[in-house]
Amino acid sequence: MTVTVKTFTSSSEAAAALSSDRNARYLGGGTLVMRALNEGDISLSTVVRANDQALMRIDPSGPRITLGAGVTFARILGERDLSFLHAPARSIGGPAVRNMGTVGGNLFAPNPYGDFTVALLALDATVALQGGFGSRDIPIEEFLQSRDRQAGTLVLSVSCTRPTSAEAFRYRKIARIKPKGGSVITLAAHLPISGGRIAGARIALGSMAPTQIRARAAERALEGRALDAATVAAAASAAAEGTSPSDSALGSAWYRREIVGVHLRRLLLGQE
Amino acid sequence: MLELRKDIFADERDDNLKEIGKGTQRQDMLGHVTGTSSYFNDHKLQGMLHLKVVRSTHSHARIRRIDTADADRSAGVRRIIRGSDVPRNLNTLLSLINFGKDDEPSLAVDKVRYKGEPILAIVADSEREAFEAIAKVRIDYEPLPTVFDVEDALKPGAPVVNETYPKNAFIYHDVYDHQKLRFGDADAALATADHVLEQRYQMSPIEHAPTETNGSIAAPDTNGRYVVYTSTQALFFSVDTCAKILDVPSNTFHFIGGTVGGGFGGKVDTLTEPLCILGAMLTGRPVRYVFGREEEMQYGPPRGAERIYIKDGVMRDGRVVARKIRAYFDSGAYTRLSSYAAVKCAAHLPGPYTIPNVYGDVYCVFTNRTPATAMRGFGVTAMDFAIECQMDKLANLVGMDPMEFRILNAYRDGDMKAHRREAKNTALIECVQVAAEKAKWPIRDEFKRASSRKDGGGSRAAIPRTPADTHARTIAPAQQRTTYDRLPAAALHEPPREPPPPAPPPPPSPRPASPSHGAGRFSSVFGTRRR
Fold first, then answer.
1. From the CA of B482, how many Å to the nearest CA of chain A?
2. Which residues of chain B have pLDDT under 70?
């Protein structure tokens, strides 16, 4: 069977084509789909594309920002208002991958990829989906938990609240090869401070489970406390709780569990 | 100085070159930077078919059954090639210089010895159809015990990886299971040394990671010949390897290579050409066989891993008096070029130093890992890493500056090297001096004044008394056994077998009786099988 490419002018038509064909995959920047095709993934026989300009839109101002699913990391890096997302955007691939790779595609990137999604998870993002039955917004965590079943839906955009200060959002990707290596682990922390205490702590981890996950035990250790050494130590020791990393060429599950607390401590204390 | 015999080689070298300091353009650079260099994969031939291989999912397993019924019927499939379709389905690369025994099939027949070993080749109208047919092949495996560690592989009772070498070690000169270097009495010197330092070094396999993956395109030409566009970095080597495997004279092929999209040693193994040409022979159509990126990374041959033990004896004044080395090259499941790496390694011991007592055992070991191959100084690079780490540790042990320590122990012109050749044109001392100067690393005057051309030879040129190894000589017929005809232990003591009766002269043949690829012409430094 040959591979069919279907291009639509509207995202709703593309979503309909996706939901009606189980062997269809949406092509954003192609950094995942073209690789799969080249490596002989025969589960994929229809490639769906959309030229809808709405997918390319960036709404960077205001307290809540919105990124179209087709926005590339290179464009995010060109937006001064999105500086809080520059570190995660820059940590993805090399310039060629950043020129093509998209926010929407990153939501589906398997380990050791999907670093931008780690940042979005820590920022409590919302994912706007177009399915066969219309569009809806769902929290990113819910989206990730049901990611395997989302193949028939099209991601339209992702939105999240802007961190109140640059200090409140931190991101770090641990890779063996810099700057282009896959993730050993990826960490993002959103720690809004209110009256000297953390209110609404979010810690997200990549490569510590089949999908990006929140480190809830570490969040509980931080919640309502001042960001001091004792609090950070408590969060670090709880970092591996609830994770289920696996062995890969980049690191063993054991190694990932061992180092996640170390890197979380360094991230929260601002150490290199 | 190196002398060039101008009376013989009058036109060989221009002695009036003035190139240093000038910008000289590489001959292939213009094509590369303008995107006009032509690679093998830039040829799209009319009616071209695509070949993909079915690879083993096990590291070691007997193949019970291969069912291609569904794959044969799959859309676009032109031909499924099995091991039995390959004219000479057993080869070793260096058989072209009579070094080693044929040990590797192009397509596995009775068993697979590493994960990813090719079992079938599927030729189809498109890559997609070849992939779809691959998914329909059913292979019934009987998993066998595996061995992934070089030292485990040499232990008695270890799983036999490759029946051609039942003891899991490459056999040199039909007798020796390792390369041996003996110079002086290392054990006696270690016993009297002020300090002894023994360390273990372990290297990992390294992937060449070329931009262009391995591949080739073969097409029928006129007069029964085949034109082959290939990524090979060893074109004539590949021609002869294909001629042997496909059992045709090498002038059957017109190989076109030239631009290699990154080789570094990873494109000498001639992995794609034989099957690609066979596909063209069996279908009468042009056939293209290119590794995917994952194939290249996972199953393309890497630099082999090495495990090295070094035990050094050093005196308080900094002189290294003994160096004892045991090294294991992980060849993976087949020989490829690792047998040669072990030879190079043994020839390199003990590094560029004059050490009066040297003892080396270097093994080329078979395991159920991806076969290893050449890569930039293979056989020497890892050993040098180990030796130089060791030199730093020894310098620290005796409280010497590591640069001065190297100058003190460096070989000099006229010294006797451990493999009994006089050292000539040595320059380690000068290299260290320049390195120290560039790095603004202070070394003392006496070391600044040292020279490779002074204070060598004399007593340093003597070959020391070297005791013979005491253990019994390896029994020669042992390596003739395979797992299929394992002898009882007692049989090892039987007298040498009668040579087989001479075969009747073969009938005259249009083809030369000796292999057409020219094997047998070279009497190499390795010692040939017919020695």
1. 35
2. 1-2, 471-531
